[in-house]
Amino acid sequence: MLSQNTRVTYSGTGRRKTSIARVRLIPGSGKLIINGLPGESYLQFSPNYLRISCAPLKILGLNKEYDIYVKAEGGGLTGQADAIRLGLARALCTINPENRIALKSEGLLTRDARIKERKKYGLRKARKAPQYSKR
């Protein structure tokens, strides 16, 4: 039996580009805390980033059921928002395996494997070559 002080937490890890987000879900009122800041201010009040981050909860209709605590590092806001989305979806799958079906059909459990291609020797970027001179 759980004591009154024990809080049930569910966790998931998400990655995108060079960003890593460790997401913890705790039953609560629906607040989003990222790196100790309110989610809205951390994501610069961007409705797009907030919508992306909370998409798994919206699909399952659990918007106000869980508090979300995130430790995000690396990359920029786009990568971090997508990493939060993947970590949140994985955490929701640990709560209830039935959630997996709905999240999988929306494509929220797929890790986006696209990363920056490395720069090659003799080129300016990964594929951009210096201007060709015939003579």
TrEMBL record:
SUPFAM superfamilies: Ribosomal protein S5 domain 2-like
Molecular function GO labels: RNA binding; structural constituent of ribosome
Cited InterPro entries: Ribosomal_Su5_D2-typ_SF (IPR020568), Ribosomal_uS9 (IPR000754), Ribosomal_uS9_bac/plastid (IPR023035), Ribosomal_uS9_CS (IPR020574), Ribsml_uS5_D2-typ_fold_subgr (IPR014721)
Keyword Ribosomal protein set for record: yes
Record-linked PANTHER family: RIBOSOMAL PROTEIN S9, SMALL RIBOSOMAL SUBUNIT PROTEIN US9M
Family, as annotated: Belongs to the universal ribosomal protein uS9 family.
Protein name, as recorded: Ribosomal protein S9
Organism of origin: Inkyuleea mariana
